[in-house]
Specification:
Blueprint lengths: L5 H28 L3 H31 L11
Helix pairs in contact: 1-2
């Protein structure tokens, strides 16, 4: 079982978030190609969601580094 560290957990959520955004982006693209107005709304939502996600994860990474610089010890999960 891989060791779970704060930075690994952060990378997992980064990847999961962007995979979900990519799937939603494909769905939005398909809707736009079918001339569905909902596709544009979904596309706007995906862009907004991705931007907020990037900002939140950058802030979380900075806070993690400020709190414990260079600390990559395993975290405790109960």
């Amino acid at each position: 079982m891989p060791v779970v560290t704060p930075s690994r957990r952060l990378l997992f959520w980064l990847r999961a978030s962007f995979v979900a955004d990519a799937v939603l982006g494909v769905v939005a693209g398909l809707l736009v190609s079918q001339e569905e107005p909902a596709g544009w709304y979904l596309l706007g939502f995906v862009v907004l969601r991705a931007a907020i996600g990037v900002v939140a994860l950058v802030l979380a990474a900075r806070m993690l580094e400020e709190r414990r610089p260079g600390d990559d010890r395993p975290s405790v999960i109960h």
